[in-house]
Write a structure and sequence with these properties.
four-stranded antiparallel β-sheet, single chain, 43% strand, 407 residues
Length: 407
């Protein structure tokens, strides 16, 4: 692994945020608070591999990302539920609002008459979860709120995503100048979760005008009526002139091949959007911020060799070109594993499974899951980009780190 600046970024410094001794931690989302602190939420898996059945944790940095507080649990897991895909937002009155997805990871309720097709996961801590890849179900999108800086939290408040059957989160909500909230989600109308029913995923905005207690479908960001293109994990940016820009991750069906990101623009605070326009930028997912010097920055994961996290600068927030791409971090996929690794819990038991031995970076299975960067700028102008990658240990685990730099 290496950091590559390519003459664009300087004063590069990479440090750990958090490593767990036996669980994967991933998908961090970060914001700069009004008091200058960096506040981040992330997912702790309940297993030593990516499983989307974990719990949401929070950590804080008071020195611009140089060091981070020991994390504490925001919403804990249980024997039957997990949560992940969290994001953070600070409201005008200082209230913290975390959005996340809650899923039921149900074990068998009826004694089976035959073994499960899956051999994983089975642990001393959680017992036999080998049926979860078929029995799990997304329970919905929720928000929780804190008025004491994250010490205590409300019970989960359900987000109305109708007419979608479900909404998957990626980043925290965004505040409009009038105090309303926009939440970017992706989902489907005819079916639950990410695939099925011959329908691709769409991206949409939910809106709340009462501080996150009640939500309503506000607008569609991207949707393909032919069900060929998936539009997922939207990332919003407000320009100096008030327009909103949104980037989305894309895949084409039936191959599920990842394609370039698309961009769409709104001139009416997110009520209507231009048709998605293909960019020449490959990578996903993204986050965008306005910089202190008037420029705009987008960061995104790069999940193909040589892997890592990349960024692009734009002068106007509308013109983005891969020729301005730079590398923030390269690598993140381990070289070997001494044990078999199960595939994704969201697919069939064999999907993404990897045998012990050397890891082929062209076919890394679940180990391609790196990146998911989040970015913020602190008072002295330093940019902090947080993300996850895999350790290079005999039993690799996802962990969190951040790179500080200037442009």
């Amino acid at each position: 692994m290496k950091d590559t600046v390519m003459g664009i970024i300087k004063d590069v410094e990479t440090t750990d945020i958090f490593r767990h001794g036996s669980h994967c931690v991933n998908q961090i989302a970060m914001r700069t608070l009004r008091n200058g602190d960096l506040l981040a939420v992330f997912n702790e898996e309940r297993f030593p591999f990516h499983h989307d059945s974990g719990q949401t944790l929070m950590t804080r940095s008071t020195d611009g990302g140089k060091s981070w507080s020991p994390p504490h649990v925001v919403l804990p897991w249980s024997q039957t539920e997990g949560n992940w895909d969290c994001g953070i937002c600070e409201l005008e009155d200082g209230t913290l609002l975390v959005n996340l997805t809650i899923t039921g990871f149900f074990k068998r309720g009826v004694r089976p008459e035959q073994p499960s097709w899956s051999a994983h996961p089975r642990t001393d801590e959680w017992g036999d979860w080998s049926w979860t890849y078929k029995l799990q179900g997304w329970l919905g999108t929720f928000v929780i709120k804190s008025t004491d800086g994250g010490a205590t939290w409300t019970k989960p408040i359900p987000v109305n995503v109708r007419p979608l059957k479900h909404g998957g989160c990626r980043l925290g909500s965004w505040l409009l100048p009038n105090g309303s909230l926009l939440m970017g989600l992706y989902g489907r109308i005819r079916g639950y979760e990410e695939e099925g029913e011959g329908e691709t995923t769409r991206s949409a905005l939910m809106r709340s005008d009462d501080g996150g207690d009640n939500w309503e479908y506000f607008s569609t960001l991207g949707y393909d009526p032919a069900s060929i293109i998936d539009y997922e994990e939207p990332a919003l940016l407000r320009l100096k002139d008030g327009r909103l820009v949104c980037f989305m991750r894309t895949h084409t069906q039936p191959s599920s091949d990842a394609k370039n990101m698309v961009m769409t623009i709104s001139e009416d605070d997110g009520f209507s959007w231009t048709p998605p326009k293909w960019t020449n930028i490959w990578g996903y997912p993204a986050e965008l911020i306005a910089l202190q010097d008037g420029r705009y920055l987008m960061v995104y994961g790069y999940r193909r060799p040589p892997y890592g996290v990349r960024g692009i600068l734009s002068e106007d927030g509308v013109t983005w070109d891969v020729k301005n791409e730079f590398i923030i971090r390269e690598g993140g996929v381990p070289g070997r594993t001494e044990t078999d690794t199960p595939g994704s819990s969201r697919m069939t038991p064999e999907s993404g499974k990897l045998a012990s031995g050397g890891i082929d970076w062209h076919h890394p299975g679940i180990y391609q899951h790196i990146g998911y960067p989040s970015v913020a700028q602190v008072e002295d102008g330093t940019i902090v980009c947080a993300y996850h990658e895999w350790t290079d240990d005999p039993k690799p685990l996802q962990y969190l780190l951040c790179t500080r730099f200037r442009v």
